[in-house]
Amino acid sequence: MNDPMPTQALQDRIGLRAPLLFVVVILVVFGLLYSLAGTAMGRVLFPAQATGSLIEHDGRVVGSALVAQPFADARYFQPRPSAANYDPMAAAGSNLARSNPDLRKRVDAAIAAVAARDGIAPSAVPMELVTQSGGGLDPHLTPAGARVQVARVAKARGLDPAIVQQAVDAATETPQFGLMGQPRVNVLHLNLALDARQR
Amino acid sequence: MIEALLVLALAIGLGWPLGRYLAAVMRGAPMRGDRLFDWIERPFYRLLGTDPRRGMSWRGYAKAFALSNLVVGGLVWGLFMTQAWLPLNPDAIPNLRWDTALHTMVSFLTNTNQQHYSGQAQLSYLSQMVGIVGLQMATPMMGLALVVATLRALMGGRQAMQHGSDPASTAGSEADVGNYWADVVRGGLRFLLPLCLLWSVLLTSQGVPSTLQGGPIATPVDASAGMTQQKLPLGPVAPMVAIKQLGTNGGGWYGPNSSVPLENPTPFSNLLETLALILIPVAVAFMVGPFTGRRKFTALVFGSMLLMSVLSTGTGIVLEGHTASAAAPLLMEGKEVRFGANASALWATLTTQTSNGSVNAMHDSLAPLTGLVTLGNMLVNAIWGGIGCGLQQFIVYLLLAVFLAGLMTGRTPELFGRKIEAREVRLLSLLILLQPLALLGFTALTLALPQFTDNSNPGFHGISQVFYEYTSAFANNGSGFEGLGDATYWWNLTCSLVLALGRYPALIVPLAVAASLARKRHAPEGPGSLHIETPTFALTTIAVIVILTLLQFMPVLVLGPVAEHLSLAAH
Questions:
Q1: CB spacing of B230 vs A67 below 8 angstroms
Q2: Interchain contact B482–A (C-beta under 8 A)
Q3: What is the pLDDT of residues B300-331, one digit of tens each?
Q4: What is the span of the domain harbouring residue A78?
Q5: Does A189 lie in the same domain as A128?
Q6: Domain count, chain A
Q7: Do A38 and A61 sit in the same domain of this protein?
Q8: A177 interfaces chain B, CB cutoff of 8 Å
Q9: Phi first, then psi: what are they for B342, rounded to 5°?
Q10: Mean pLDDT of A76-105
Q11: Contact B123, B132 (CB under 8 A)
Q12: B424 in contact with A at a CB cutoff of 8 Å?
């Protein structure tokens, strides 16, 4: 402030014009144009992935490979339980803490139910079959989570368990590039593969 | 564990060149691509009526920052409340209630992205693309602009930083800290936007939707399961997820964020998104050296941050998957099969170290001590930190550490040849005190009014839920213990206030302090000055951070996560 020369060169008078027009830069260029450009590039380069990895069957959309859907019939492998009832519009986890008695109760009941359903010991129930995922839409099981269901599915379909286990193995994805993530089975793909075999 | 090492190696390997490039962009140095970018930028500057080469004093800079925030905020608030009547709304989504719209606007304007709404059901494509993505792209660059201005002031202003100029010559006058409009526009166009486009395409290749069509309705295979129709919400998701991860934003397209397979479909997309959590904050640490011309200053910043980050990440991964309270079967509650416990714990620690706040597992269901680590990260808020804000907070700790070290060794506390005196320390103390006042005040008030709390868990964890919400808001993080029923007037309004308190003073006060230093007489650094660019001083700074932030919150941390862990371990 003592030296007038450099301060004069500074532009400290900020009117309303600059902030008002700056909004246009932010919302139109950084927001709208960027979103449209990213969407167009994705859409052109990867059309199937860009539209939700949909699975069609007889000309109808039966689901997305990336969204779990409920299965109740014994002929089908069953996905993980969902806090959102498998509705993507209501996607949510249970948000129950490990110290919450309600969570303990719910998991104990689920263990008993899975053990009875698949005829296995309660201690052999894989943990993802009795816990709810983060968004309630987890489309995968671990290979163990599918294996415990093989006997039940084979019986209901009148198939040799070895053949059902083969279908599970074929649907198992290994860790990506050999090092990322866990081995996993996509439940919807597996069930559709079994249906296709028996048509 | 392999994922943690891969992310760290990639962040350092890519952050280094990106940091050098960012320094050149923010210095306004000549570079390749100038002709193209100048051609795009020149009309903006003419429109704004500004000369990008002419700088501002700290007052003008702060005023431009404040005014641009007010105007953008007002407009976006209006957009959220009128989206039902505007175009690009194929799923016919209604308007947001005024208080949820206000909280959403403030939360995105402060680079926080705390969400009290569920995007796929409550925001139109227009609101997402213009309001949400626009702010997600602009606010990290505003944070970067403020820290760059602070660094300029610490070096004595832009004239003093030019080669061959005498740092003593500018004493007594207001420092030129740069041109706010040019800083935001250059950072956005030349740095953030191209990186986001690349990430957006890579994410789409893994299955993140990018379309403008409304979501289809599927007919599930097994009708006996009771669901006859399944609405699949899609949209221009990939560009939003890219900037959400890269811009330390965190607010997802879908309510449960990157745990939803459509937002994070594969382990590779998870690696891309985890890397994006820390990539730019690491690049900002690498920017410091080339930007200020003091390479050892980068070593101090980067070394301190890396040490804290490795300690916090390692602790988090071990506590989540390998302790008593982590035992099966509850370990997978709130987690996804394709990632597993380790990748979820890695994400949880990095997202809180960087003020990002996106999640790939539900934090409410983490092991209590992992929750403690994430809370600690947010209270420090400078282990990488948000883009710009993290370094700004680190500078606050640095100035305080210099002051304390000066007192302890009996030397005049000086930073880069300028004395830190009572005026500066008073301003910094007010800033430091604001955190406990806001966090503990609102946590106590909310817990005293159980009709407003509405938490999903009883006991010790209920305390953690409330404290986490305000901590996340103040740290401009945005993650949450999401069981909280937080779309109420109480939560929307109190969180809006805490969000603003955590953003604006933390960005503006350090700039004012640095400008006040720049006005002082510059004394050349000699053998008698305190050398801050050393490992000893880095450890001193970390000690100051631990004492200042973690110790003052010890009681509430013991009452929340520690007590919960002990009660679980006792079973």
A1: yes
A2: yes
A3: 999 999 999 999 999 999 999 876 665 667 88
A4: 55-197
A5: yes
A6: 2
A7: no
A8: yes
A9: -65, -45
A10: 93
A11: yes
A12: no
